[in-house]
TrEMBL record, chain A:
Locations listed in the record: Membrane
Every ABC-2 type transporter transmembrane domain range: 28-368
PANTHER family attached to this UniProt entry: ABC TRANSPORTER PERMEASE, ABC TRANSPORTER PERMEASE PROTEIN NATB
Keywords (A to Z) from UniProt: Membrane, Transmembrane, Transmembrane helix
The name this protein goes by in its record: Transporter
Organism annotation: Thalassotalea eurytherma
Topology in membrane: Multi-pass membrane protein
Sequence intervals crossing the membrane: 21-44, 177-199, 229-251, 271-292, 304-322, 350-370
UniProt xrefs under Pfam families: ABC2_membrane_3
Cross-referenced InterPro entries: ABC2_TM
UniProtKB/TrEMBL annotation, chain B:
Pfam families, A to Z: ABC_tran (PF00005)
PROSITE patterns, per the entry: ABC_TRANSPORTER_1, ABC_TRANSPORTER_2
Keyword Transport: yes
Family: Belongs to the ABC transporter superfamily.
Record protein name field: ABC transporter
InterPro entries for the chain: AAA+_ATPase, ABC_transporter-like_ATP-bd, ABC_transporter-like_CS, ABC_transporter_ATP-binding, P-loop_NTPase
Domain spans labelled ABC transporter: 2-232
């Protein structure tokens, strides 16, 4: 224990004294709340406000009433666009064609073909297209209802079925997009924060010629690996806790009620999150140490480990693509934690058992990695790579 | 007391050690001389328990290194070939770190550190971070960390490389003092004058084998040369004749 304490406190001292690396390690913690704040603001703006949209309307003069209806919905012809935005709207080039026989067809009661033409693939176009479409449909429906009423028919006949939609989302459910972002940031935080310590303490020490003398000391390689693992994990955990605290504070500044949403992180959820993320911090650091020790040079270690930190981004992405996912993904590191976090944020009850099983599986993999590392540090291959 | 018996070590097709045997006694400074690639570093790494010999054994105070590496290393102080420092720690913290690894605690540890700092006259360096230390200062820190637990045996791998005259003298004086206290010192070097001046016994290693051993004077006599350097060249130059 004396040895472990000495090894561990030395690693922590070194980690904390490298101030620049430490600041870099915690960027995720400081960046995540900013990102969440900005993106929430943008999402609210997009959902709540309907800023004026400018559309290339040809044949507007044939349908003044429709034009007025569109204008009521904040959709205007291109002629009214302000000079500052002109280039942008012209580039978007969303076109509506109104046929010359609009008035006639309306009087004759025949179907009128209005054309909406745009690049539907562009994300920026989608909300405008939706608004134009809704506006035209509602105008069309309005006329239809009037015609039927004029003939003395109850409009209700047109709606034989009324679909009442009921959302079973828990009242405590959090805004999905925020919890989604936060889960990914937390996982990233676990992988990113301990990264510099993990590389520095393994590949870095070898490059600085201090690993060999350590391996010559009367201390087991297991203790050496564990001390390094605990040091990197401590920093990773600090990063995760910071991310969690700062993000919760940041979300407080976003007025989610405009969307009819809430986001709160009660003590129980926060503790469950920590129980969930502690094993993943250990796992992340162990994985990074493993690859950094195996790398021949510091540079190689950096490249390998940067691939690892993509995992918490890629795995949730892959999960979201899968509709029927195999059972083992519920326990596998990263994916298991991500799925549980999803439930936690949705307010679904998460059993202690599930937390335990997923955690145990991650811990098991960490233990295997540690054992392999401790054995490898005894091997001649590693010793020969020192010189 | 360090003993090496019939060490054999092969790396794939390269034979590094081929039946090397020697012993370094307590109260003596034993020098290992050998051309580059003779197997000195391999031999020392086997002694530290980092490499396992294919055949033969190395013992430190009678403890077999490959069987009980941790106990054997406890009786060993090492001044490695390429030494680095933990540059974010102060000299004191670094020595403290190694003292703790050797199981020292509390007042005993503090006293041991104070003693070694005093002996090496490095009290004024103690609380500075080691980044930017001169080669001589680095040597002192490495020496202090190797000796803080007062090992019975002390192994140095080319310790004077890159040192100026003053630092070399400090090192030599320190080694002489250490020897006088009855410790066993084994050190490898390329500097003939140093070996001649310091060593009680010299072991010449060539091609992974013992080429000759004896006092510097005995080696000169054996080779029929006045200078140790000439004797050394002659001894390693031919496998037959003198060396046989």
């Amino acid at each position: 224990m004396i040895q472990f304490n000495a090894l561990f406190s030395k690693e922590i001292k070194e980690a904390i004294r490298d101030k620049r690396a430490l600041m870099a390690a915690f960027t995720m913690a400081f960046l995540a709340p900013v990102m969440i704040f900005v993106m929430s603001k943008m999402a609210i703006k997009e959902a709540v406000e309907t800023p004026p949209a400018y559309v290339n309307i040809s044949g507007g003069e044939y349908a003044p009433a429709l034009m007025k209806h569109l204008a009521d919905d904040n959709v205007f012809p291109m002629s009214e666009v302000e000079d500052a935005d002109k280039v942008m709207w012209e580039k978007r080039n969303i076109e509506v064609f109104i046929p010359a026989d609009f008035e006639e067809s309306l009087l004759a009661g025949t179907s009128i073909n209005v054309v909406l033409r745009a690049d539907y693939g562009e994300k920026a176009h989608q909300s405008i297209i939706r608004r134009v479409r809704d506006s035209v449909y509602s105008y069309s429906r309005q006329i239809g209802y009037q015609r039927i009423m004029m003939r003395g028919i109850d409009v209700k006949l047109l709606r034989p079925i009324n679909l009442a939609e009921q959302d079973t989302q828990k009242p405590s459910s959090n805004a999905t997009f925020i919890s989604l972002m936060l889960s990914i940031y937390l996982l990233f935080g676990a992988f990113f924060s301990g990264l510099s310590v993990a590389i520095d303490t393994s590949a870095g020490e070898r490059e600085r010629n201090v690993l060999e003398i350590l391996l010559c000391q009367p201390v087991s390689t297991m203790k050496v690996v564990l001390a390094k693992l605990f040091a990197a994990t401590t920093i990773a955990l600090i990063g995760v806790v910071l991310t969690l605290i700062l993000s919760t504070i940041a979300v407080g500044f976003v007025d989610l009620s405009q969307l009819g949403l809430t986001f709160n992180l009660d003590m129980k959820t926060a503790i469950s999150l920590l129980i969930l993320l502690i094993p993943i911090c250990f796992f992340a650091s162990a994985l990074q140490l493993f690859f950094a020790f195996n790398a021949k040079t510091f540079k190689e270690a950096q490249s390998l480990v940067s691939i690892i930190i993509m995992l918490p981004g890629m795995i949730p992405f892959a999960l979201s693509m899968m509709n029927d996912r195999p059972q083992w993904l519920d326990w596998a590191p990263i994916s298991g934690q991500y799925l549980i976090m999803e439930d936690l944020f949705k307010g679904d009850p998460v059993g202690f058992g599930v937390l335990l099983v997923t955690g145990a599986f991650t811990v098991l993999m960490t233990v295997i990695l540690v054992k392999v590392m401790a054995e490898r540090l005894k091997s001649e291959k590693v010793v020969l790579a020192l010189s | 007391m360090i003993e090496v018996n019939n060490l054999h070590k092969k790396f794939k097709d390269v034979t590094a050690l081929e039946g090397l045997s020697f012993s370094a006694k307590d109260g003596e400074i034993t020098g290992i001389l050998g051309p580059n690639g003779a197997g000195k570093t391999t031999c020392l790494r086997t002694l530290y328990g980092l490499l396992k010999a294919d055949q033969g054994s190395a013992t430190i105070d009678g403890i077999n290194v490959s069987e009980q590496p941790l106990i054997a290393r406890g009786n060993l102080g090492i001044f490695p070939d390429k030494f680095g420092l933990y540059e974010r720690l102060t000299a004191y913290e670094q020595i403290d770190y190694f003292a703790s690894i050797h199981g020292l605690t509390g007042a005993k540890k503090k006293q041991a550190i104070e003693e070694v700092l005093q002996e090496l006259e490095m009290e004024d360096l103690a609380h500075r971070k080691t980044v930017g230390f001169s080669q001589g200062q680095r040597m002192k820190v490495t020496l202090a960390q190797a000796l803080v637990h007062k090992p019975k045996n002390f192994v140095l791998d080319e310790p004077t490389r890159g040192l100026d005259v003053m630092s070399t003298r400090i090192l030599r004086n320190y080694l002489s003092k250490y020897k006088a206290k009855g410790h066993c010192i084994l050190f490898s070097s390329h500097v003939m004058q140093e070996v001649a001046a310091l060593c009680d016994r010299v072991i010449v290693v060539a091609n992974g084998k013992l080429a000759a051993q004896g006092t510097p004077q005995e080696l000169c006599d054996l080779a029929g040369e006045a200078q140790l350097e000439d004797a050394f060249v002659k001894i390693i130059g031919s496998d037959e004749g003198v060396a046989a």
